[in-house]
Amino acid sequence: HHKNLDEEAKFDLYNLKFAIDALDKSLISDLSEYKNPLGVYFSIEDSELIVNEFNLLISTLDNNLYNHRMTKNCAERILNIFLCALEKTEKSETSAENEAIWKAIKYIEKNFDKNINLSDIANLMNVSENYMGVYFKKHTGMNFTNYLNRKRIFYSVSLLKETDMSIKEIAFSSGFNSPEYFTRVFTSAFSKTPKEYRKENKL
Fold first, then answer.
1. Upper half-sphere CA count for residue 25 (Cβ side, 13 Å)
2. Residues 38-89: pLDDT tens digits?
3. Gap between the Cα atoms of 201 and 198, Å rounded
4. For residues 100 and 165, is the Cβ–Cβ distance under 8 A?
5. Under 8 Å between Cβ of 44 and 101
6. Please, which contacts does 31-34 make with residues 24 or more away whose CB atoms are closer than 8 Å?
7. Which three-class secondary structure string do you get for 68-115?
8. Which of 4, 75, 124, 199 could make an S-S bridge to 10, C-beta 3.0–4.6 Å?
């Protein structure tokens, strides 16, 4: 929902409804420990991560790619981000940690189609690979490889729909190092091969 308070101020309202018993029980348990879950501060990074997750859900539905597991994972990632925000509100994490994660996400957005890995990002941020891996998952709800592959997969969707590029060309253009790995990741995410998706959705 888009709400305009006046000519200079506006905000977007996102609604997420889900059955509690459909999500990870430990996640729900962690949420229930907080006395004031509404009194939470979201950083710009957290807010954009949540918006990205909602956009992923919308894109999944718009592109006829609904998958129960993916929807469940998106909901859990949103709640994980919410939990992280709660923890930061109560414990006030260091600015260095927040800056490193934010820069890492921006780096992925800009370079996902290249041969990048967690070590590259850790070196760029002047932190250890282990540190980056732990806090990347803490802030995004998924590990680096899964986050990177998700970005690449949704980029490949537009190429499958809008171009006549071969599956091999799309795989390499999206950042995957082989068509076989691309097909495996795509099929795992959407329960259909890139070829099957293109046949059903080619513009």
1. 1
2. 455 566 677 777 778 777 777 776 666 666 677 777 777 777 877 777 766 6
3. 5
4. no
5. no
6. 31/79, 31/82, 31/83, 34/86
7. HHHHHHHHHHHHHHHHHHHHHHHHCCCHHHHHHHHHHHHHHHHHCCCC
8. 4
144 token code pair: 């680096």
Distance CA 173, CA 113 (A): 6
Comparing 67 with 175, the larger pLDDT belongs to: 175
DSSP state of 37: T
Tokens describing residue 167: 């599956």
* Residue position matching structure tokens 């998706």: 197
Query: Which residue from 74, 71, 85, 73 is spatially nearest to 30, judged by alpha carbons?
Result: 85
Tens digits of per-residue pLDDT, 101-115? 788 888 999 999 999
Long-range contacts of 138-145 (CB under 8 A, 24+ apart): 138/84, 139/45, 139/46, 139/49, 139/81, 139/84, 139/101, 140/49, 140/77, 140/80, 140/81, 140/101, 140/105, 141/76, 141/77, 141/78, 141/80, 141/81, 142/73, 142/77, 144/117, 144/118, 145/118
- Round to whole Å and give the CA distance between 131 and 149: 20
